[in-house]
Amino acid sequence: MTATVAAATVAAPALLADLEISRAWLVDPASGREGPGEIVVEDGILVAVTWLEGPDAEGIDASGIIVAPGFIDLHAHFREPGNEDAETVASGLAAAAHGGFTTVCVMPNTTPALDEPSVLARIRDAAAASGSPVTLLAHGAVSAGRAGEQLAALGELADAGVVGFSDDGAPVRSASLFRNAVAYAGMLGLPIVDHPEDATLTEGSEANEGLIATVLGLRGWPAAAEAGAVARDLAILADVLRDVPGARLHLTHLSTAGSLELVRAAKAKGLPVTCDVTPHHLALTDEWVAGARRWSWEALDDDGAARDPWRDGAITAAPFDPSLRVNPPLRSAADAAACLAALADGTADAIATDHAPHAEVDKAVEFGLAANGISGIETALGVVLAAVDAGQLTLATAIAALTTGPARVLGDRGPAHRGLAEGEFANIVVFDRSATWRVESGALASKGKNSPLLGRDLPGRVLLTVAGGRLAYEAPSA
């Protein structure tokens, strides 16, 4: 028997009047439980979560309708204010809902930078005007204007409600400034979210240093640029902790085996460090720049050695697709495998999309001149489910990395919801794991169409996203 989903008409004030989902597969990382079940939402409140057992559970498995807590994205770029041609807060929130996200943390590399409370107020006003029930949180800038010269007004930003501080889009180059930021943010009870990159090693770089970049004639981007920055950050964190016990560090979009091993060792020593990985660094590799279109795990042989994409006939598309230019760059298949392993063993705390929409004018150029970033908040679930389907992750691990993992990183300033909890406003996503959807420009709510997955079918069609008890997204009838 198949699951049934029934929703009543949504009326002002846009609370979900009634929703019943029966004979579905529930995944609730907060309770550590998954299995057959049913839920009932009334007036936006999750009033009943029933786990089915025995004969009632027969015929229900994880291959069909899945109900999970709404996803939380630690890292997205909505471009407003300053670059509304690429994305607005409204279009970004619509894209988030389509992807199953009920909470999104936006980064401060706007124009002007989010370095003072007035900019945060503008972003919040845009979110309110959008009418979307998806919760928007924000990271404030570490440095004034993100220029890396002096600290931003961290205290004022903390009072205004930011959830952390980052100069993302660029690293904090000055070790001295970074140390002061870690200490000050720690006293405020907030993390520094660093984009780890030694810019002295990456200036002019275009693609991951290795065979692919060499064959294509692209300037190499060494893994050491990330690992070296991670090592610096961890050393500074350990030093600051002696005087500021509340100091915390979050390393975003880690992409190399070396970086993740450093975090693994730091966690073993008890350092308060967390990190995230992106869907594209889990599933795509630098061979995509050459024209390959296989998943990262398909690029390794049974012994874990990289396959030659030219000898394997894996090159099926034209090289130099500018939608594949990202920072950090797509890495080797071995690095992607390390990202998957880090999720499996808990070294990586979360999957964050690094959703980076761009206007066509900034992407439809020579590869090395293209703006960095993939529009990925709507395709994240499908990419992660592809890894689950291939046995690279368990479904429970994948959902935890999209829900309870990022919630722990955010702490008290994150969303109140933690799982499928009765008596609270519903924050849930319902998706059909057995259904696929085709990634096409017209299917994306984001204004940014810069995805290397255009034309590809992905598993896991989102049917409903309910945020704060309100319907945020409902799939059109087939």
Strand and helix layout:
Blueprint: E1 4-7, E2 18-28, E3 33-42, E4 45-51, E5 65-69, E6 71-76, H1 89-98, E7 101-106, H2 117-130, E8 135-138, H3 154-160, H4 175-187, E9 192-194, H5 199-202, E10 207-208, H6 211-216, E11 220-221, H7 224-241, E12 249-251, H8 257-268, E13 273-277, H9 279-283, H10 287-290, H11 333-345, E14 350-351, H12 360-363, H13 380-389, H14 395-402, H15 404-410, E15 428-438, E16 457-467, E17 470-474
Parallel strand pairs: 2-5, 6-7, 7-8, 9-12, 10-11, 12-13, 13-14
Antiparallel strand pairs: 1-2, 2-3, 3-4, 5-15, 15-16, 16-17
Number of helices: 15
Give the termini separation: 20 Å
Count of domain modules: 2
Low-confidence stretches: 7-13
CATH architecture of the largest domain: Alpha-Beta Barrel
CATH class of the largest domain: Alpha Beta
The helical percent reads 25-40%
Q: What is the CATH topology assignment of the largest domain?
A: TIM Barrel
Biggest beta sheet attributes = 8 strands, mixed
What radius of gyration results from the CA coordinates?
A: 21 Å
Structural class: alpha/beta
Mean pLDDT: 95
> What percentage of the residues does DSSP assign to strands (E)?
15-25%
- Overall morphology: globular
Report the strand count. 17
Assign the CATH superfamily of the largest domain.
Metal-dependent hydrolases
